[in-house]
Please model this.
Amino acid sequence: MTKETIVLASDHGGFDLKETLKEMLEELDFDPLDLGCHGPESVDYPDYAHALADVIAGGRAKRGLLVCGSGIGISIAANRHPHIRAALVHDGLTARLCREHNDANVLVLGGRTTGIDVAKDCLKIFLNTPFEGGRHERRIDKMS
Model:
């Protein structure tokens, strides 16, 4: 069985958290595909959100992780793509609900607003929570 690829990207404000979560993905036996950024120098978050969306559209990964300073800008940029359902979460509950109710395929975190332990918890929950379907399916269909 091959490892699932999780595509991840960040801007400079999310770089440190992305690096920590990339290590966690490796420990959990996922195959992280890191699109950058690769350092703390200032970059433009839309470039990284669009790159991640392209990877998912191309089928190289089904799920992803984005991080910018607040998580807001990069989630807005990612959600401009109709095949992306990027959810900015702040705790375990919102991480669970974004999967169960919204079938989110991209987890978004704020590098300057989310602590490491909370971020790790959110990522684990995101990766392990299935979509409930049912009444939620018709809503998802209206967005796709």
Observations:
- The first helix runs from residue 15 to 27.
- The chain is about 45% helix and 15% strand.
- The chain has a mean pLDDT of 96.
- Residues 45 and 139 are 28 Å apart (CA to CA).
